[in-house]
Design brief:
The strands form five sheets. The chain has an eight-stranded antiparallel beta sheet. Strands 3-2-1-4-5 form a five-stranded parallel beta sheet. The protein has a three-stranded antiparallel beta sheet with strand order 7-6-8, covered by helices on one side. By secondary structure, the chain is an alpha+beta fold. The longest helix has 17 residues, at about 250-265. Helix 4 runs antiparallel to helix 5 and helix 12 (about 395-405) runs antiparallel to helix 13 (about 415-425). The chain is built from 15 helices and 20 strands. The chain binds ligand MV4. Ligand MV4 binds near residues 131, 201, 202, 208 and 277.
Length: about 450
């Protein structure tokens, strides 16, 4: 059994993991950079170690520093959270080699799914629907031309090593293919050190719907319903909800079955997310994320399962605590990401939080690690809080979201609160008539 967990992360997710450990009677170790000395995760952990300067590369991304901190403090497990080292297969390997427990999937699963082109081939082999496209990475521009002609334009080129939209190019016709192929490759090479790109039929107005999955070391896999994540800007999600307004119970069952099929095919263990594109009643595998996600609370609120505790249990070799049989989702949940940024330009706006009031009341949860007089450092992600609301149905959830956002006060830094209030007044959003294009078309 795990008795002391080092959290290789910061911010709200570090705190979230500490809370889970507390409830389980597990000791915690915080690691932090020089810029995070006053961070809440440091204060609430049983032990803390400064692992380097503000720059992530020299602190939260420094594998040797994190491992050294675990050894010094006698931690027996490491939770990577999301971002930073969470999907670094090499890190997971080293953690395991050091006789520590990595609270997450195997290095093999991380490596496999980190290669988006191989992930796509694996989904295909598992019998999970994928979009028409190339078999593996494109080897030449001639092959790109052939595949594109066969599947028809528009097409999208994606970096195999990609994520976050980098190394991605949409191509409307054959005349644009040459330059799209070259720029996608050089962008991928620059960003990830691997130039490989693959090709897919491009969907014009898809929804992004993802399935939360969980596997244990006894061979059991469950799908815990979906999260609709179509409200994004520049590949940053803004609002997530469950259930998706677009899914029927039958489609949900089919997507959950597909997700479980893929997990079984690769013997997946711990928390994961299978991302699908959904358009015109059909879903297609897009990628798999091998981590706990920012938006995991949405699933927690509709399933009643504590996903972080479940991660720790599964990493200890215990069976999934989720009961056998068909999964029941109750009510509706929605998450609003609150960033310290200009709500119009989306430029980060770090600085001192001079006033702070967090909403509460029925159906309201706030996951955050900020406090009044806290200084949001400029070195990291601008997420400062997640407001999660739930209700018996979508209308009640929207009403609670509106009410909670009205009572949510942050002064000193600009935040996305006002943007969320505006989205909640949008007729199309209220109807659930959304796609990944929603924010492009949103005016306020
Ligand atoms: C797509 C697509 C349309 N068709 N693939 C964006 C991030 C990367 N993970 C994949 N992305 C997309 N892939 C095909 N075949 C549209 C997007 C996309 C998108 C997807 C989900 C949420 C927001 C998005 C915004 C722009 C593009």
């Amino acid at each position: 059994m795990i008795s002391k967990v080092l959290i290789a992360n910061r911010g709200e997710i570090a705190l979230r993991i500490i809370l889970a450990c507390r409830e389980m009677g597990i000791k915690t170790v915080a690691v932090h950079s020089e810029a995070d000395r006053d961070a809440l995760h440091v204060r609430y952990a049983d032990d803390d170690v400064c692992i380097g300067p503000a720059a992530s590369r020299q602190s939260y991304l420094s594998i040797s520093s994190v491992i050294a901190a675990a050894e010094i403090t006698g931690a027996d497990a490491i939770h990577p959270g999301y971002g930073f080292l969470a999907e670094n297969a090499h890190f997971a390997e080293i953690v395991n080699e050091c006789q520590l427990t990595f609270i997450g999937p195997t290095p093999e699963a991380i490596r496999l799914m980190g290669d988006k082109s191989r992930a796509r081939e694996t989904a295909k082999a598992a019998g999970v629907p994928i979009l028409p496209g190339s078999d593996g990475p494109l080897r030449t521009i001639e092959e790109a031309r052939e595949v594109a002609a066969q599947i028809g334009y528009p097409i999208i080129l994606k970096a195999s090593a990609g994520g976050g939209g980098r190394g991605m190019r949409i191509c409307a016709n054959e005349a644009d293919l040459d330059s799209a192929y070259q720029t996608a490759r050089s962008e991928a090479e620059r960003a990830f050190g691997v130039a490989d790109v693959y090709c897919e039929k491009y969907l014009e107005r898809p929804r992004h719907i993802e399935i939360q999955v969980f596997g244990d070391t006894h061979g059991r896999v469950v799908a815990l319903g979906e999260r609709e994540c179509s409200i994004q800007r520049r590949h940053q999600k803004l609002i997530e909800e469950s259930p998706s307004p677009a899914l029927t119970p039958e489609l949900r069952r089919e997507m959950c079955e597909a997700a479980v099929k893929l997990c079984n095919f690769v013997n997946y263990v711990n928390a994961g997310t299978i991302e699908f594109l959904f358009q015109d009643g059909t879903f297609y595998f897009m990628e798999m994320n091998t981590r706990i996600q920012v938006e995991h609370p949405v699933t927690e609120e509709v399933t009643g399962i504590d996903l972080v505790k479940e991660q720790i249990r599964v990493a200890s070799g215990e069976r999934l605590s989720v009961p056998e049989g068909e999964f029941r989702l109750r009510g509706h949940a929605m998450e609003f990401r609150i960033n310290a940024e200009d709500p119009v330009t989306f430029a980060p706006n770090p600085g001192k939080i001079r006033e702070l009031h967090l909403p509460g009341g029925p159906g309201v949860r706030v996951d955050t690690a900020v406090y009044r007089d806290y200084v949001v450092p400029p070195h990291y992600d601008s997420l400062i809080a997640k407001l999660i609301v739930r209700g018996k149905d979508r209308p009640e959830t929207l009403a609670r979201g509106r009410r909670a956002l009205e009572l949510f006060i942050v002064e000193g830094v600009k935040t996305s609160i006002s943007l969320h209030r505006a989205i909640l007044d949008d007729e199309r959003f209220i109807r659930g008539d959304i796609s990944t294009r929603f924010m492009e078309e949103f005016e306020w």
